[in-house]
Amino acid sequence: MYVPSKKEIVQVRRAAAGQEAKILRETKKLVNIDSPTGYREGLSKAAEALMANCLRRGLQAELLLQTVQGDHVRATLPGGKEGRILLLGHMDTVFPVGTAKARPFTLDGDLARGPGVEDMKTGLVLGLAAAELFAHLYPANERKTLVYLYNTDEEIRSPSSRATIEEEARRSQACIVLESGQAEPGSGVVLTSRKGSAKYTVEALGKPAHSGANHKDGRSAIEEIAWKVLAIQALTNYEKGTTANVGVIRGGIGFNVVPEHASIEVDFRMTTVDEQHRIVRTMERLARETRVQGVKVTMTGGITRPPMPRTEANAALFEQAKAIAKAMGGPLAETTSGGGSDGNLAAAVGCPVLDGMGVIGRHAHTPEEQMDLASVTERLTLLVLMLRALSLA
Length: 393
Ligand SMILES: [Zn+2]
Fold this sequence. Notes:
This protein has 11 helices and 19 strands. With 393 residues, it is an alpha/beta fold. The protein folds into 2 domains: 6-194 and 308-392, Zn peptidases (Aminopeptidase, 3-Layer(aba) Sandwich); 196-305, Alpha-Beta Plaits. Zinc ion is lined by residues 90, 119-120, 154, 179.
């Protein structure tokens, strides 16, 4: 366990504080670029701004060109020591084009506001600032290589960046996710686990009939789907952290017609890989087995994000971060989330992950989204010292 000296903390914090104005300038620029997932024009501008930040801050950077999603940014700060640390972030937001104009980046007392300020544009900027300070404060032969992947499709579960994330995670000793730690002002949290998710659409095709004259000839798609709804909901196991939610149901055309069509949309969340397997097995069986003779069932979907369980390796990363935070004079708590991040992908290939290492803020995905200005210097200091700890490990 690495515990920095008071002198080292003062030195890093002073350097971090000196970055604050620049970080806010760079963040303002990024927040004021609309970059919803799939909007290539805005995402290109965001990527361009980040590439410029990388070069100014002494990182090597390249665009990973995409055809459907926006191009991803991959940046590196080579170190003289064997070993790599992966840092993840995403440029895409959930806000439609026009949001940045309607409510641009603003400073509001102790807070910054604007679309993506907390999820997670400040985190992107903070991560690159950490690389600059890390290179400035420590000699190359004491630094491991930092690899940054900033993608453009995290909000839709990273279809075009997943393979690259997995590949980099396999080669890295640890992964730091620069998503924000959602907490009350003045407190700090990081995440050591996140739930995984799965999404399915199940459709039943029966045979229509007049419900009065020819009821017997009909094959009810709704009846088949109803059986499935009950079987799916029964997969919920709160103790194990598994939830099943049939969130949408459709079917039938009138009260006097045996329904030909019915369908459902299902969301699962799970905490462990065992539960992930149980869900997949059950859904495959439900697709195969029908209760109403003559009804055909088709199913699409599957696991959208694997779970990120609280492994010992993740917990050890938290203990290290906590030791640093304690030496810095602040508390750091460990938390979990029902929502996923790209940390889930890194965790699934066996890389230890510490998530929520960006700034502190709250109300992501809403107009109230906000980031604590005081967290910029504190989190940057923590991040640099964590890179130091991982380089010594
Ligand atoms: Zn995010």
